[in-house]
Amino acid sequence: MKAYRAYHFSVYPTDKTAIFSAWLTSFPFESFVNTETGVTAYIALDEVAQISEAACLAVPFDGVVATLNIEDFEGQNWNAIWEEHFHPITVGDWTIRASFHKASATKHEIIIDPQMSFGTGHHATTQLMLEQLLDIDVTDKSVLDMGTGTGVLAIAAKMQGAEKVAGVDIESWCVDNAIENATKNDIRDIAFSTKTLGDFPAFKPDLILANINRNVLLAHLPSYAQILSPNGSLLLSGFHQEDVAALQALAHENGLKPLGKTEKEGWICLKFIL
User: Fold this and answer.
1) What CA–CA distance (Å, rounded) separates 108 from 91?
2) Domain residue extents for the chain
3) What is the pTM of this model?
4) What value, to the nearest 5°, has the Cα angle with vertex 86 and ends 45 and 194?
5) Gap between the Cα atoms of 71 and 240, Å rounded
């Protein structure tokens, strides 16, 4: 099972964590989790050569200072880490919880055991995406979830009444985890896979969800627009305010019209329609 390195950054002052997190997105970390003292960034242990600790700490913002502690762990320790830090969250009348939590009192709930993959509903970007998704009528529609991680967004779309849902991730263990999570929610007809956009020549989704990062979104946005059905919607997150102009300009070049922007803890979610 894959080993990981966690970079635990303490940020001073703590109210500048969002700015510091934006700085870290310029490095090839796989995911970020906010903590009480700052943010933790994760990357596979066999890819740490891409990370310069000194560069990460060279914060180009006046008055923002960060310190760093590093922790290496094997994949089998991932559950214990999440059980320690992952608490149920509520988005509208939906609760996202793990199987080791008590059942919620909300109208709907999604059970997610993250294992090694990312996207529990706990991170601000996943919450932003969920808020927007739950506000869209996907009944009998088709949905494509890019960078599905734990599968939480794909599962939410299916539970909202979507007819055809596919979830894609480049990591096979994420796909395995997403399938397990869907089964925990009594859902067995989401097509989770490690396919690429080119593997969906006949699939014209009515909604594409892409909660990834700025660089991946800029690289793939033209392909999203190409396969999206007429009048289809696109939800993007995983980036900060300073990335919005570039994403909006590229969306415009590819025939996408802006429908709104939401923000949480310094992270942004953009909505477009074709």
Assistant:
1) 10
2) 4-73, 119-273
3) 0.75
4) 50
5) 26
pLDDT tens string 108-130: 899 887 665 555 555 788 889 99
Q: Looking at domain 4-73, which of 3.30.310, 3.40.1350, 3.30.70, 3.90.550 is its CATH number?
A: 3.30.70
| pLDDT grade for 82, boundaries at 50, 70 and 90 | low
Which candidate, 35, 53, 34, 32, places its Cα nearest to that of 43?
Answer: 32
Residues 6 or more apart whose Cβ sits within 8 Å of residue 268: 128, 237, 239, 240, 241, 243, 244, 261, 262
Q: Tens of pLDDT along 155-187?
A: 999 999 999 999 998 878 788 889 999 999 999
Annotation: CATH topology of 119-273: Rossmann fold (3.40.50)
Tokens 């006046």, residue located:
62
Q: What is the pLDDT of residues 25-43, one digit of tens each?
A: 788 887 777 788 988 888 8
Q: Which two tokens stand for residue 17?
A: 């964590």
Dist. CA 263–CA 108, nearest whole Å = 24
At which residue do the structure tokens 């803890």 appear?
A: 265
Q: Is 57 exposed, middle or buried (0-12, 13-18, 19+ CB in 10 A)?
A: middle
